[in-house]
Design goal:
heterodimer, A: 411 residues, alpha/beta, TIM Barrel, Elongation Factor Tu (Ef-tu), domain 3, eight-stranded parallel beta barrel, 10 helices, 25% helix, B: 306 residues, eight-stranded parallel barrel, four-stranded antiparallel β-sheet, globular
Amino acid sequence: MTRVLKKPELLAPAGTLEKLKMAIHYGADAVYIGGLKYGLRSRAGNFTFEEMEEGLDFARKRNAKVYVAANIVSHEADIEGAGDYFRTLRDIGVDAVIVSDPALIEICASEAPGLPIHLSTQASVTNFEALNFWKEEGLERVVLAREVSMEEIKEIRQKTDIELEAFIHGAMCISYSGRCVLSNHMSFRDANRGGCSQSCRWKYDLFEMPDVDERQSLLGGEPLEAFSMSAVDMSMIRHIPDFIENGVESLKIEGRMKSIHYVSTVANVYRQVIDAYCENPDNFEFKQEWEDELWKVAQRELATGFYYGIPDETQQLFGKQRKIPNYVFIGQVLDYDEDTKIATIQQRNHFSVGDEVEFYGPGFTHSYQTIKEMWDEEGNPIEVANQAMMIVKMKVDVPVKPLDIMRKKKG
Amino acid sequence: MIEIVATAESTEQASLLFDAGVDMVYVGEDLFGLRMPASLPKETIEEITKIAREKNKRVIVAVNAIMHNDRIEKLLPYLQFLEKIGVDAITVGDAGVVHVLKKHGLQLPFIYDAQTMVTSANPINFSVKRGAVSAVAARELTYVELEAIQQKVPVPIEVQVYGATCIYQSKRPLVTNYFNFTEQKRSVSKDDDLFLSEYKNQDEHYSIFEDINGTHIFASTDLNLMPHLDMLYKANIKRWKLDGIFVKGEPFVKIAHLFVQAKQALLEGRWSEEVWKPLNEQLLTHHPKKRPLGTGFFLKDPGDIK
């Protein structure tokens, strides 16, 4: 008999309205966004209430959910108006808020009853009793700390029934989230209020100090290696079945600052893996093409973080970095004529006749094309598409669909 | 009333701190507490608690670690032990610990201590409603913010007035990882006394060490609020913490005694530059030369931090 598994939600970041639409179009069951207040990504595109409403409308029609992050650690001046803010989010139909500060949790629970609350990973929840605490406080879901191992998730699942959300892909804080104020001290920018200056990725000397004016450096390596706290990125692409078997309800992709190219690619891949496993867990086979696809948008080396042990030096960015081949988002399909095989494309980056390009779309469709001829909007033949957002027509042999993405290898 | 709480590294030091006029000692073991000067076994904590009883003083035990499942499973017997020997309070930073206290009806007052996360009155009030009797303010708060917070909470907030402040905790063994990558065969311990400097700013140096709770980094200056204690007193902030993680033995006891003298002067209305200046000068003679002192965020404008 085929086992029936509870399919987890695939949760993707959406820094802008366009990214929200693309993430859902490419397979995300839910997206998380930032509002104009209380978010940790002050530099990400954050949503006005009007944009949220448009995003919610788009999501509803596709049976997807929208969560709003309000995960700062508040100072005294920050919480005025928080009740009104949460009530508005509830009233426009936001599916949940992601919060870490107990102050904001309390305000949300009392001022906007009915709005589900998810505890942010900023709260560093690492044990089942903490989950039970938050369950009794009325929270619906907890985002686990990135330091929790798969064995611990298994035990947590057995000892709690609050919804679990876990990170599966993206950049990681190398500290316990929220327990790092390097940025506050080194740059006077508050890491817990959206100002993180990423001091962990800087280079440091490491030394002993036998006397006030005497430093004995402990740096080593050939060539000399700086001390660094910079982590590689996380990818759990080969381990999705572990999350599903352990009953994790939501699988989260990091990156509200990431591009459309990144978000659509990563969501597309994980959609495939989750669907493939849940459809037939006993005969599931991992496909290398899934992982290859992720490398096209990877910014750093990839590893599994704390899930299968304490990360050693191989999960930090030491030494000379391998150059990861980069792909560029060059166009988005607006239309395709099946009879003439002519695609209408909106330019997003420079391309020209002779380029080898790749198209991909939801459902993990891929096709390759050498550009032989192109025309501008008026039908004049062109050699290069070099104006931002210009409309280009070209022959594409394998049919493509609106919102498919065209990219090419860099360099 | 002003209460001075000081970390203690041993039974002997705890006893000397009490004799120097400290009201409470703060002790614990690394399995449950964060960044203590020494990881003290249960027997030592029991001894210190007995001495505190005899001297009419109090004991606070650190239970403020971020607990994973394996720790939380060992926690209940530890808490039951602390309840039995009658310690006065524990610090707590993990909601799981609060849950265990409540579930088992333990009579152990707790002090909310989620380190960098305790930055406004509301989370403190949230924890007070769930039983907290005090809260440790984040070291990143300015005087203006501390004053406002104390006005809005019904419990004393504890403010660090002396010693090193932690600015970073990772569960990863970052020093070990570095030595492994550079193939240096060095063992790593909490007592290594290592420092970091940014390549771009060699003037500042930051203490770093590893223990079972991961890697910890400290601010480039240790706190010393001796010249500004009157500000705290006026703001009704009357629980002052001295942290001796990098200042061991007798010098730390002597420094604690200086703060006790400052407290007396304030209580007796004798506070003036003639009082605090000599105390501050003596402090400098006991404090390690390679650890610069400063006021951290205390005197900054809240708007200075973006």
